[in-house]
Amino acid sequence: MSNYYDAFEMSPVPVPGPDAVPPEPFRGIYGMPAFATIPTNDLAESADFWIRGLGFFELFSIPGRVVHLRRWAFQDVLLVSEGSVPEKAPAMSISFACLLSQVDPLVEACRALRPDSVEGPRDTPWTTRDVTVITPENARIVFTAAKVFDPASEEARNLEAVGITAPGAGGSANTGGGANVGGGDNGEHA
């Protein structure tokens, strides 16, 4: 029995594939289920990097205090004016979904603004390609793009070993993060 079920319709992340198109920037106001608050001692510099380098847009700002940035729905960041920021990036990171087609342009844009700001891209054992960016405020930001799921791959075998199965293997659904999960015996869902 699997505890996973298809809830893909809740996510703005498109199904991975060569024809995947990123969602439009989401300008609606909603109750944010999660967001990052990042202190900065230079709101203008930080906002510029997040907008031109990372592809966010300014949803709104309170001059000198906060800039609310967003990409897709549920990808919210609050840049908050503080007197100082950490001298180096922490080990902790926050990840944002993107598409494979966005990885190289994101790397190029960030390197054009801050040449030493990017690590990667690197492929992960859970079927994503990740890029780590250190922002002007020393936040560690990971952009993660789902790769097309190959049911014959080592990644598929690794996921199956933890109970996440490929399409057609006992009823399954795509999670949007590159993995596919069994859903044949989940009953009713939220």
Task: Write up what this structure looks like.
With 190 residues, the protein is of the alpha+beta class. Helix content is 17%, strand content 28%. It has 3 helices and 10 strands; from the N terminus they run E-H-E-E-E-E-H-E-E-E-H-E-E. It has helices at residues 43-53, 100-113, 154-161, and strands spanning 36-40, 57-62, 66-70, 76-81, 94-98, 118-123, 128-134, 140-146, 172-174, 180-182. The strands form 3 sheets. A 4-stranded mixed beta sheet has the order 1-4-3-2, with helices on one face. Strands 5-8-7-6 form a 4-stranded mixed beta sheet, with helices on one face. The protein is globular. The two termini are 17 Å apart.
- Rg: 18 Å
- Multimerization state: single chain
The share of residues in extended strands comes to: 25-35%
Distance between the termini: 17 Å
